[in-house]
Model the fold of this input.
Amino acid sequence: VVYTIIPVVLLVLTAFFKNPARPYLIAYQQSFSDTIPVAVVAANGTATADNDTSTTTTTANATGTKEIEPSLRQKLVMPGNHTNIPPPEERIGPNGEKGYVHDPQWLLKNPKKFHIPPDPPKGGQELCYAPGNSTEGAEGIVDVMKIRNHIETSKESRDVKLFCALYTYSGRVHFTDAISETWGRKCDGLLFASDNHSNETGHVLLKSNSRRGFSYKSMIQRVRTMLAYLYDNFLDDYDFFHLSGDDVFMIVENMKEFLASDKVKQWDEVPDQYVFAGFWMQMGDKFYLGGGSGYTISRKALKAYVEGPLQTCETGKEGSAEDL
Done:
């Protein structure tokens, strides 16, 4: 079964929804720089408040490569000074090294060959059905072929660098192995944030301050730690960051094509607007992007979120609803 992730720019859509939730969404848009003061944390741990809303853009130099404007390069939170996030020295690498930072291109350098596991034991579920005979049905296979044809024939630009960050644990190696053998290598950077290190599977031990350890109820704190880790180590190297669990199949070509579109570029260039994309969901009066298929944020949005809400909003909250 192929699960297609269709990104939708949430903040663009808010203008078309006439409901009581709209003010909440607009306030959420502004909160990065207006409603919530940005925490400026120095290396010595002192902090001040700053509501600087300077614009940040990306330009191209004479060689055609992208250059990041100085306003985006300047980080306001130093490593080790995030609120309720373990300091870098507590990240211990596979060889005992402190402050470990993994190689985000490990899979590109050491690609895994796709393979189909042996037939399941008697009574087990068949792994590979003939096209049209699984849950997609006869009509679904037509859609799958349309997707494949678009990937192979589209002339639209996919010129963006995408980092895929997934939360997992050692009991889900068969999930992350499947990702490594299929769509994972199409990401420009990849992280399997886990409860252990493994050079073989690519899992990276990334501890949070959650009282729940690595259980399902620790997801809020685990994702907070992942966002800080991405900000500290990879902010300047990637255009977009996609966060999700390990039970997704992502069509990276479609994702990149969407993110490289003029609509997304123009939106992200406007001050106080941030690309936060995913699948629109509702729970009661709350609208949010579902964490199941994941959500995608721009470099600009990651910087604004980490320097603002991550440092000041419900920093000790526990639970599994990291997408709310």
